[in-house]
Amino acid sequence: MKPLEEDFYTRNVLEVARELLGKYFVRKIGKKILIGKIVETEAYSSNDPASHSYRGRTPRNDVMFWKGGYLYVYFTYGMHFCANVVTGREGIGEAVLIRAVEPISGIDIMHYNRYGTKTKMNIKSLIELTNGPAKFCQAFKIGRKENGISLLRGKIFIVEGDKIPSKLIRKSNRIGIKEGTDKEYRFFINNNLWVSKK
Fold first, then answer.
1. Is the residue at 195 inside a domain?
2. Residue 124 and residue 122: Cα distance in Å, rounded?
3. What percent of the chain has pLDDT over 90?
């Protein structure tokens, strides 16, 4: 599994958000490997009022201003982590939120990370395993320590996956924001069971 090259990430945030669909997100934990197919993303640009970078660089959003190819992880609502792929050139402040992935490999580990031993695996728990940004982070054990990790090497990276036909790619307004609601910066694979909102 070869990680995507840096030049994939150092492009326009909307291009990256769309082309991440179908790519495989890989997380190595010891000898265990977790793999999920990216099925839903949201783009956040530097001139976007819904973006963390809109009001400038701060200690909290600093990673978002790095050169494309890093993971920007933030804590929200006092309880959840969300993971973003940094894009563009150094200093711009743009990133793609990974909203949902389809579990491919290491599903039993993801299930344990999400539910512990209290829930037996069934269709419902499997569908709800990674069908949202916080659920994805919990299943893949992504938290504060993963903020700033390079996606070009190491234990977290993205590889080529399934080629998604253009006719299956949809875009819409983003979810759960109060500003920039007019922008169609959300991309998803139509009819995929793990998309967070149909």
1. no
2. 6
3. 86
Buried b (16+ CB within 10 A) or exposed e, 137-146: bbbbbbeeeb
Amino acid letter at 186?
A: R
Residue 87 in tokens: 């894009």
Q: Is residue 1 part of a domain?
A: no
| CA–CA separation, 19 and 9 (whole Å) | 10
> In this structure, what is the dihedral angle of CA atoms 99, 69, 137, 156, given to the nearest 10 degrees?
140
Query: What backbone phi and psi angles, to 5 degrees, belong to 62?
Result: -50, -45
Q: What is the DSSP letter of 32?
A: E
Query: What is the number of domains present in the chain?
Result: 1
- 194 inside domain: no
Question: What's the pTM?
Answer: 0.95
| 96 contacts 44 by C-beta, under 8 angstroms | yes
DSSP string, 88-157: SSTTS-EEEEEEEEEEEE-HHHHHHHHHTTSS---HHHHHTSSSSHHHHHHHTT--GGGTT-BSSSSSEE
Structure tokens given for 172: 């819409």
Provide CB contacts within 8 A for 41, sequence distance 6+: 17, 18, 20, 21, 96, 97, 98, 99, 186, 187, 188
pLDDT in tens, 157-175: 999 999 999 999 999 999 9
Model confidence pLDDT, tens digit, residues 58-74: 999 999 999 999 999 99
